[in-house]
Amino acid sequence: MAEKRWTIKRRLVQNTVTRYNYYYHAKLKLEGVLKGINTQRQDNYNVFLPFYPFSVDKLNLNTTDLDSVIQKASVAVQIHDPRSKWIDDCYLLVGKAYYYKGDWENANNTFKYINTTFAPKKKSEYSTVIGRSEDSQLSVSSREKEKNWFSRFRHKSARNDAFLWQARVYLEEKKHDEAQSLLNILETDPYFPRRLEGQLAELQAYRFYKQGLYRETIEPLKVAIKKGKGSRDERARMSYILGQLYFSQNVPDSAMDAFRDVIARKPDALMDFNARVQIARANAKVSGANMEQSLAALQRMMRKERFLPFKDALYYNMASIVANDDPNRALDYLHKALKVENPNMLQKTLTFKAIADIHYFQKNYLIAQRYYDSTASIMGPEFADAELVNTRKEVLTEVAKRIDLINQEDSLQRIAALPADQREALLARKVTIIRNEKNAPVKKGEDQQYQAYNNNNRYNNSNAPGNNGDAAGDWYFYNTGSKSSGYSEFKRRWGNRQLSDNWRRSQGASIASSANKQPLTDELPATDNVAANIDRLPADSINSNVLAANLPVTPEKLAESRTKQMDAWYELGKLYHDKLENPRDAIASYDSLLARFPDNPRKAEIMYSLYVWHEKMGHTQEAARYKQIVLSQFGGTSYANYIQFGLPKDENKERTKAVSAIYESAYMAYLTGNYDTVLTLKRQADSAFQFSSLQSRFDLLEAMTIIKTGTEDEGKNAIAAVIKKYPGDDIILRQATMISDALNKKKEVVDYLSNLQVARDSAGNAIVDENISIRYPWQSPKPDLKDSAAVVQKPATDSAAVAVAPPPPPPVTPYKLGDEKAANPHFVVMYFTRVSKVLVDEALAQFSKYNAEKHVTDKVETSSFVLTPTEIMVIFRLFPSEDKALDYLDEISKSASSVIIPRIKPTEYKFFIISRENFILLNNTKDIEGYKKFFNTNYITE
User: What is the pLDDT of residues 902-938, one digit of tens each?
Assistant: First the structure.
């Protein structure tokens, strides 16, 4: 079809039919599919809004409709002349449909095809790399005429739009480096069209925002709001995010301006309301502002009819304003918010969590646990802090159990210590009280309200372990919530009974049937929570014998009760330190344990833990005191060895194997970028093993993770601490020193790049040059030139040869073969003899496709790995044994050059296999040549 003459008539027919018969309908179909996505989620305006009102991977759009868009646009391409100016627009629609399906590979390939196929054909339309190193610039865009008003209505090439969509796909794939490279080229491109400057700035802002670089997001977001072509709601959303960014950077004046801009754009009622609330909150942070003025502004909003649906949100934000200065007042506002009837479950979730957070930071863990539990029961799957809520709920549940157990055993011991006659009188009174509560009628709805009241009262009276109030008030049998629980138990066992005399006799058959299923007994079930057990018994089954059954009146029962308390205190300290990361309360728990039970069997471990925790908190004197106690009173124990020698003398094979397994998991998590997992496994190892033979490696790995996730100063301090802690460990010291040097050189690189100047001509366009090769400072080492005057010339003689120092021996790397009988996981590695990003990317893509087709069940993962700046590899993981790895190696070695990567020369790459242990050594030593010799000597690949 492309061979026919491109006459005016043919051009008119092809362009018109392609546009209105196919492109128009495909575009209309796509717009219809996307029309309702903005309403698919309920945003939380109290945290950073998602940049877009949807998440592509959770859209769950109708794939049939998207496939229909792809089909319509594809038919237009197939049956029409490829010279039509709407063909590239049809391809762009195809790429967008793939994007919204979440099919990143096909979307990326489509946009790449547009960029290459529809590139300018005339040489004059290209602008290649021309100029000096300080003003080098690359132009890849297609030039568009923008000089007159008529050009606004001229058809625009879709190629420039495809560049932006390709960068967007990179961001969704979390390929931030590729996205940054493409966006930076477009940003400096002298021919990039002005009509897309707003979208380019929007993607730059999205890139920073997605990476959590909020300060860097502000400037491009301002440009996107000013120059963007989005709808009114889209601009209002970006203005709201801009206000949140300013607020987070402590610039309240600019934040209020941004939120006022949101209101001026007339957004929906919810965003308008939240913008006004954020203005009040920002006004409270302005220098010299009065917090009461902001509260008064929110009170005025509460009196307006249009804000009545948001009354609970107003109380919540009033609590947020006063929370830091007056947490009790904040709790009052939050409880008022809970009383407001509103179907907005997100706001109720936020309110429950805010109450839980306040009690959590006040160390009222029992109350906090209850509200975290309420939060978890109603929060949605996309709630931002869902993981935090679930973690704290589970941990605080365990904390609450220990605290309840400690208080319960205290109460039991106090009652058991009373004289027999006083104890019997007290038990008789309690039996009467409990029976009266269980037999009292409960009105409809009263049981739940009364239960909530009693729970609040009970928790407020026992916020901390060892709360020894009035014996009658916190005695374990006196549970004021037993009325409602007894009422519920009665209904469960006996059903809904009519008021009548001798109902037991008249309903004898049903009673006997029920008794056969669950016989009445005077003994409590064997569980630790005695109060809960009593709640489950009917009133007529409770007597003094039941109440006295668990009293520790004998020496054996008293010893058992004290052991329960010791275990609870011990576990409580572990929970505070390991799970809640609260060393202060952990220390307080162990101090209480030592004060109550100075001769407990875990005293050596407790003393050592107190030494470690005090040292971590910088309490030098306390740490020294506990250190001396461990060394003097528990000399020869493993804990004394930890302090004296750093390594346990009796570390057996099972312990070493367990420590190594955790370290390998942490190291692989680091390599794959799961840094939170690394820190979690490090804490688990510290808690489980205290100190091990791999402690230095764990500390180095933790420092490397902090470098990746923390600030620059935090990273430097972490690696400096490792250097200071292990001056005698050559391997760790050498690795840590190399990392420290790289961190210290960072400023040199930043300064060099920031000083690059871009020259521009008289019209303001960048001057670019063609043959440019940028070299960084470290790529051109300074020559080591010596002063000629300092060189002493020695006369040459025929009889004596000049002595030359022998070269240093090559490094010895302790690579080892694994046990043939044990399962030893292996990697297959593709090593390049000539480093090129193009080679690596092509190999990565082709092998990923090959494994997806040929090794679906094996789940072979393919990824690139940078050993050094000049040595990059492609890694195939993870094979359960050496034989499996060798089989795969033989397979790809035969197929690589002919089937998988035919465009890459076989001389440019090599294959080998490596065990997981040797891979860790290789990454530490960087001795690739040593391992290749080891591989050639010990592995046979025929």
Answer: 888 888 888 899 988 888 888 877 888 888 888 888 8
Q: Which residues contact 672 (CB under 8 A, 6 or more apart)?
A: 863
Closest CA to 403 of 571, 551, 522: 571
Q: Which helix (H) or strand (E) holds 821?
A: none
CB 556 within 8 A of CB 547: no
User: What torsion do the CA atoms of 734, 737, 743, 748 make, to the nearest 10 degrees?
Assistant: -100
> Is residue 712 exposed (0-12), middle (13-18) or buried (19+ Cβ within 10 Å)?
exposed
Residues recorded for the chain: 942
Q: What share of the chain is helix, strand, coil (3-state, %, to 5)?
A: 65, 5, 30
CA 161 to chain centroid, in Å, comes to 32
Task: Give the pLDDT score at 510.
Answer: 35
Convert the pLDDT of each residue in 53-71 to its tens digit: 776 655 656 677 788 888 8
Q: How far apart are CA 721 and CA 699, in angstroms?
A: 9
**pLDDT range class, residue 503, cuts 50, 70, 90:** very low
Crossing angle of helices 104-117 and 159-172, in 10° steps, is: 150
**pLDDT (0 to 100) of residue 332:** 92
Number of C-beta neighbours around residue 710 at 10 A = 15
Q: Alpha-carbon distance 889 to 783, whole Å?
A: 44
Q: Tokens 């390929």 sit at which residue?
A: 175
Task: Tell me how far apart the alpha carbons of residues 74 and 110 are, in angstroms, rounded to a whole number.
Answer: 12
Q: Which amino acid is residue 580, in one-letter code?
A: L
Nearest CA among 57, 83, 56, 65 for reference residue 26: 65
Residue 736's nearest CA partner among 722, 755, 715 is: 722
Contact 62, 128 (CB under 8 A): no
Separation of alpha carbons 541 and 519, rounded Å: 11
Rounded Cα distance, 125 and 712, in Å:
44
825 close to 916: Cβ distance less than 8 angstroms:
yes
- Reported as type and span, the H/E element at residue 19 is none
Contacts within 8 Å (CB) and 24+ apart, 119-126: 119/159
Rg of the Cα trace of the chain?
A: 36
CA–CA separation, 549 and 534 (whole Å):
11
Residue 135 DSSP label = G
pTM score: 0.49
Q: Check residue 60 and give its pLDDT.
A: 57
Cα(107)–Cα(124) distance, integer angstroms: 30
The DSSP code sequence of 609-676 is: HHHHHHHHTT-HHHHHHHHHHHHHHSTTSHHHHHHHHSS-TT--HHHHHHHHHHHHHHHHHHHTT-HH
**DSSP designation for 362:** T
Q: Token pair of 734, please?
A: 């050498």
In eight-state DSSP terms, residue 523 is S
Closest CA to 49 of 248, 338, 319, 264: 248
Return the HEC string of 70-126: HHHHHHHHHHCCCCCCCHHHHHHHHHHHHHHHCCHHHHHHHHHHHHHHCCCCCHHHC
Two structure tokens written together for 230: 């989005």
Residue from 387, 391, 400, 490 nearest 437 by CA: 490
CB atoms within 10 A of CB 239: 25
The whole-angstrom separation of Cα 539 and Cα 432 is 10
- Confidence at residue 458, expressed as pLDDT on a 0 to 100 scale: 39
**Amino acid identity for residue 660 in this structure:** S
Longest dimension (CA), the chain: 132
Is residue 802 predicted with pLDDT exceeding 50?
Answer: no
d(CA 859, CA 856): 6
Q: Closest Cα partner for 569 from 680, 461, 410, 687?
A: 410
Place of tokens 């069209």: 193
At 44, phi and psi to the nearest 5? -100, 105
DSSP code for 272: H
Q: What does DSSP assign to residue 900?
A: I
